[in-house]
Specification:
Layout: E1 8-17, E2 23-29, E3 35-42, E4 51-65, E5 71-76, E6 82-87, E7 97-107, E8 114-121, E9 128-139, E10 145-148, E11 153-154, E12 163-170, E13 175-182, E14 188-196, E15 205-219, E16 225-230, E17 236-241, E18 251-260, E19 267-275, E20 283-294, E21 300-303, E22 308-309, E23 318-325, E24 330-337, E25 343-350, E26 359-374, E27 380-385, E28 391-396, E29 406-416, E30 423-430, E31 438-449, E32 455-458, E33 463-464, E34 473-480, E35 485-492, E36 498-505, E37 514-529, E38 535-540, E39 546-551, E40 561-571, E41 578-585, E42 593-604, E43 610-613, E44 618-619, E45 628-635, E46 640-647, E47 653-660, E48 669-684, E49 690-695, E50 701-706, E51 716-726, E52 733-740, E53 748-759, E54 765-768, E55 773-774, E56 783-790, E57 795-802, E58 808-815, E59 824-839, E60 845-850, E61 856-861, E62 871-881, E63 888-895, E64 903-914
Antiparallel strand pairs: 1-2, 2-9, 3-8, 4-7, 4-9, 5-6, 5-8, 10-20, 11-14, 12-13, 13-20, 14-19, 15-18, 15-20, 16-17, 16-19, 21-31, 22-25, 23-24, 24-31, 25-30, 26-29, 26-31, 27-28, 27-30, 32-42, 33-36, 34-35, 35-42, 36-41, 37-40, 37-42, 38-39, 38-41, 43-53, 44-47, 45-46, 46-53, 47-52, 48-51, ...
Length: 920
Amino acid sequence: MDMMNDKVRKRVDLNEKMEDNTTFDVAELIEVCWLDVRGIFDITKLSPAKTTYEVVFVIKLEQASRWEVPVNVTLILPDGSKQERKENLEEKPKGDWIEIPAGDFVASPERTGNIEFAIYEHDNQWKRGILIKGIAIRPKYQTDWFVNAKKLSIAWAENNSYWRWSKIEETSSNTTIEVAELMKVCWLDVRGKFEITKPSPDINTYEVAFVIKLEEQASGWEVPVNLTLILPDGNKQKRRENLVGKPRGEWIEIQVGEFVASPERNGEIEFAIYEHGDDHWKKGLVIKGIAIRPKYQNDQFVVAKNLSIAWVENNSYWRWSKIEETNSQTATDVAELIQVCWLDVRGKFEITKLSLAKTTYEVAFVVKLEEQASGWEVPVNVTLVQPHGNKQERKENLVGKPKGEWIEIPVGEFVASPKRTGEIEFAIYEHGDDLWKRGLVIKGIAIRPKYQNDWFVVAKNLSIAWAENNRYWRWSKIEETSCNTVIDVAELIEVCWLDVRGKFEITKLSRARTTYEVAFVIKLEEQASRWTVPVNVTLILPDGNEQGRKENLEGKPKGEWIEIPVGEFVASPERTGEIEFAIYEHGDNHWKRGLVIKGIAIRPKFQNDWFVVAKNLSIAWAENNHYWRWSKVEETSSYTGFDVAELIEVCWLDVRGKFEITKLSRARTTYEIAFVIKLEQHASGWEVPVNVTLILPDGKKQERKENLEGKPKGDWIEILAGEFTASPGNTGEIEFAIFEHGDNRWKKGLVIKGIAIRPKYQNDWFVVAKNLSIAWVENNRYWRWSKIEGTISNTAVDAAELIEVCWLDVRGKFDIASLSRAITTYEVAFVIKLEEQASGWEVPVNVILVLPDGNKQERKENLVGKPRGEWIEIPIGEFVASPERTGNIEFAIYEHSDDHRKKGLVIKGIAIRPKYQALE
């Protein structure tokens, strides 16, 4: 390397020693505008075995500067082929030896000659502060291995009565490989070994998995298989895996175990899958091989020190400080903004470090706004550039964000998969020269899977006893309209032993601490029968806690998909493992039929009521204590304190917020939005009405004016902003605001508590007969269904007409959380009709109401003498509903005399409504 005068100098760096403790020279750049570093290497010096090598420059950036223009790195192979790329040194970490990849090549005994490599930049930029240590040429370590079935030891594989070999096309590599297809064995035993050599220095933990397929006709897998992994040091990992319920007809992976590889831990690993039960003839398994690959980390964090932050080296603008990471007990450097007008923070990340599975990732800056943060009136820009050049760009308003705590600023999302390589680039910036910004702390960038909140385990992935026998169950396909896909459902023909079970790994769920509910999704066909004995439903949590209950299917509606709640659990980043769920009934003398299993729904237990506190609203001038001040109030309902915004004086009132409606209830529900405010005794300046607006996700706007002048003072009141309907298909944000921009009116004495978002409660409810449990209703000798016109809603409802029974029993339940928010007394009544030919009612019927606290109201009602041919009400009882009271009420009308055959009664349903007070 020939450089001019002393712009580049050699120095002996005593900290750099070879393995034999000798020192060597490094080249330290003082200053050049023409950077050019080149070298050659004779590849005949390398291993005689055919090996892929990588070539990297080893450098260090010290007080480096002026590297805005990327450098060029090239590798020329002996045949003249050239690999060339650009590398941006501006964002590289400083003070550490780093590697700049030049390229890779294959060496073998037949290949001779020199490779040539270079790093250069010939622009007119004077560059300084780089140290050149040299070039590393080393094997390109293999990270993924695959041992195909032909290299495994498979008991009886040479006997074509038990196994057969077939060829399949491997689309990823355009090669053909042989797989072992199991015809029939009772003694399953598949084993193999693998020599761990040259593991990648960048990867520690590897996972081992059998790659198999269960054909559609697979059977005999009721007993779980055993899996073992023996490490070079003799340690053994062992587990069992249930193949019943695994998806059929596709390649799946059965995890064997994992191990840590390093140069010191070379040797053989041994793996096996086996099941030696002599009386279990197993068939329909296909062995493809064993995958050995890095256990990729799903969550990545790029710390602030590895980001490119404009002006960060100038301590007039930024300073570095350390914070303690409680979850890892390590200290991390964060960048604290003192003052800049030009904010620019950027970074890159190589996506090949992510999970092998096809996964959607979200990217977010992790920042904190200190209490004294200011100058953020102009929104910042956040961008994400994907490897193929697609750019996601948006603006984020930091005014109104909570202060003093770590928050996330979403940047965007992308899909990673084994076929997608390259870097993503991300940035947060705002270049307004006249806005001096301060009080921002940069912790780094979080890159993590975008966790799915809602999951559905289809019936094919459940373990259903006897499902493989078409005398008992049959599989059929249905169209899933919500996602335009076809799924398999299991239709019960007839069993006496019902047993449906499944498992789910909760680490797939949302990163936030969330309560999830689990429910079987089933259908009772019209001909369903023999469900008089309740089924058992259980949920077992990862810690072994079990939730169990009984569910009566007898009175459930028929011909439509319904949900059977199993239980609920809390998921959080700290909680891992599997939940197990089941629905079963093992009565040998009850042959059950007509049940259809669709699967298991696992989803957040949606909260109906939400409150957006004032700290999470955007309040104009709120950071200026001449206009607003923050104070804490005690929330008696939750025994917590939170901040409210007290208006001292403004002429320009503007309070705004947003809310993501996907957080709301799964059911189609109408919600109302209201600002919760207080007018203090000294409030003034409210002669002009305020404007309140609600903008829906589709852009529709509701707007109205509200006069605060005559509102009561000293109490929390609500100002209605509008209402909207949420349903499972609705996504996006609602935006709400209260404002008044009259410049010559100084307003004071307003306190903002927040925004209430809650269901617009219905006062009157009607439980139709189809949703009641009516004994013998499925037998058309005793009852028949007919449609009647509902005069109030102009819809037809099904009514149950009694032909003849001696045992009358009609029951139902209702969740009182659906009722009005205010404290209200409700009355409950059966709505019935006695037809002209009604008879057998000499014995009074019993009517009961059981309240959520177990209190029971019971009375007798004489139907003889009631008017005929018209709808009448039979009062059951009454109860008080309030926000604090939750749970189900239960109601019934019955008469069990065996010698009274009753006929001519029509059940329309149950009315639940406020008990209105008459005016005197």
